[in-house]
């Protein structure tokens, strides 16, 4: 559904302008309603889901037993912190201040279309991640099957 990389500047009112290439897709997929959550695996990044995709993820995460600490941590970062947003008339969304601060996201960001969700990276964290290479010892059996 979503793919591609866009360098964006968050404005002084903490709004993110969604690239025009995605706006029609977002309007038809979720009536301009999205949900911000923490990326529980990597610092410097937030996830942004269309509301229907979010509801599926939310239900799966809530179904985990909260007896295990790792499950509670995942529930906290995804369900507890979920912040619904809606595109305004100019295709912008307000990036939640608490999430921006926790993820060290400032003005310059990179928005990645990652199929069913977006990832919003701080410019520095994205650059550091892109500069990392995948070592031979990290290649999984599934990756070996790819025809790259």
Automatic annotation (TrEMBL):
The gene is mraZ. InterPro entries: MraZ, MraZ_C, MraZ_dom, MraZ_N, MraZ_sf, SpoVT-AbrB_dom, SpoVT-AbrB_sf. It is found in: Cytoplasm, Nucleoid. PANTHER family: TRANSCRIPTIONAL REGULATOR MRAZ (PTHR34701). It comes from Pseudolysobacter antarcticus. Residues 5-53, 82-125 form the SpoVT-AbrB domain. This is Transcriptional regulator MraZ. Belongs to the MraZ family. NCBIfam families: division/cell wall cluster transcriptional repressor MraZ (TIGR00242).
